[in-house]
């Protein structure tokens, strides 16, 4: 064994030319390795200290101490707080907007009502003219009848008395000639009962007004005997009397001449009735 080791040594010495074995290392790498080893040794020797973060109070004290160390050349600035002005315009504008928003449905409803009323008025005025015409005709008829009946006296409406019958007989004797001229020969007078109105108005010469139908028929017989066609007009509206007429005409102008002639016979108490 010893001989083998000696052989290896001799062989190694022959390779290195008899010099001792030297480990070849670059200088830079060797220096870096030395620095690393030194740092490792220092870290191993130095005690381990935990890093503690400073608290907020310590930072505040440090800042105060740094400020106290500064020279007192910095002037103290006094800050004055101004009161905050509250703008009331925004509130007023908001309230106005609320009020206006609350009033808008009211205005809309009012405008709709006005439009509905105007439409109804236009409908009744322009599309239903027939409802307005009969009223005008009734007013004209009532005004004419009022003018015609102004000449009526209360005595004409009262029941027939004996004195009135006697006066009528005297007047009839005086007007026999006028009656004979107006009556057609060989034609018997007729009695007609008027119980309702026709489409066109008629004009009657009224010579008597009585309370019931029996009195009206008695009066009509007298005028029939005198040769007059006689009409009995039944009550209508607010009128409760039966009217006795001796003439029927289609217009007021046609009835006026006969009315003037009959007044000479039966007096001024007779009148023209529009029915």
Provide an overview of this structure.
The protein has helices at 2-15, 27-45, 56-69, 88-127, 133-148, 154-157, 162-174, 176-182, 213-225, 252-266, and strands at 191-194, 203-210, 230-233, 242-249, 271-274. It is built from ten helices and five strands; from the N terminus they run ααααααααββαββαβ. The protein has 275 residues and is an alpha+beta fold. The protein starts with a helix and ends with a strand. Residues 67-79, 130-136 and 151-158 have low confidence and may be disordered. Among the domains are: 103-151; 152-274, 2-Layer Sandwich (Alpha-Beta Plaits), CATH 3.30.70. The protein is rod-shaped and about 210 Å long. It has a five-stranded mixed sheet. The relative contact order is 0.08.
Task: Figure out the total of helices.
Answer: 10
Report the CATH topology name of the domain at 152-274.
Alpha-Beta Plaits
Principal-axis shape equals rod-shaped
Query: How much helical structure, as a percent, in the residues?
Result: 55-70%
Main sheet overview = 5 strands, mixed
Radius of gyration: 70 Å
The whole-number mean of residue pLDDT values reads 69
Fourth-tier CATH superfamily name of the domain at 152-274: Sporulation related repeat
Q: How much strand content do the residues show?
A: 5-15%
CATH class assignment of the domain at 152-274: Alpha Beta
Low-confidence stretches: 67-79, 130-136, 151-158
Count of DSSP E strands? 5
**SS content category:** alpha+beta
The CATH architecture classification of the domain at 152-274 is 2-Layer Sandwich
Query: How are the strands of the biggest sheet laid out side by side?
Result: 1-3-4-2-5
From the N-terminal CA to the C-terminal CA, the straight-line distance is: 176 Å
SSE series: HHHHHHHHEEHEEHE
Protein name: SPOR domain-containing protein
Transmembrane segments: 106-128
GO molecular function, one term: peptidoglycan binding
Keywords: Membrane, Transmembrane, Transmembrane helix
């Amino acid at each position: 064994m010893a001989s083998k080791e000696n052989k290896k040594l001799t062989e190694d010495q022959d390779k290195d030319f008899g010099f001792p074995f030297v480990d070849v290392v670059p200088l830079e790498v060797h220096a870096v390795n030395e620095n690393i080893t030194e740092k490792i040794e220092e870290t191993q020797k130095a005690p381990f200290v935990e890093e503690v973060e400073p608290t907020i109070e310590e930072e505040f004290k440090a800042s105060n101490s740094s400020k106290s160390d500064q020279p007192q050349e910095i002037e103290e600035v006094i800050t004055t707080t101004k009161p905050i002005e509250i703008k009331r315009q925004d509130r007023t504008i908001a309230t106005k907007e609320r009020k206006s928003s609350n009033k808008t449905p009211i205005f809309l409803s009012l405008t709709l009502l006005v439009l509905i009323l105007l439409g109804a008025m236009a409908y009744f005025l322009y599309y239903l003219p027939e409802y307005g015409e009969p009223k005008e005709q009734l007013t004209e008829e009532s005004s004419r009848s009022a003018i015609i009946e102004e000449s009526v006296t209360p005595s004409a409406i009262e029941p027939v008395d004996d004195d009135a019958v006697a006066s009528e007989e005297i007047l009839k004797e005086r007007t026999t000639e006028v009656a004979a001229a107006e009556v057609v020969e060989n034609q018997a007078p007729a009695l007609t009962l008027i119980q309702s109105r026709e489409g066109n108005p008629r004009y009657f010469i009224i010579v008597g007004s009585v309370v019931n139908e029996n009195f009206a028929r008695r009066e009509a017989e007298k005028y029939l005997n005198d040769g007059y066609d006689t009409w009995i007009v039944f009550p209508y509206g607010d009128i409760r009397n039966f009217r006795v007429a001796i003439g029927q005409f289609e217009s007021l102008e046609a009835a006026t001449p006969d009315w003037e002639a009959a007044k000479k016979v039966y007096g001024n108490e007779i009148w023209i009735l529009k029915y």
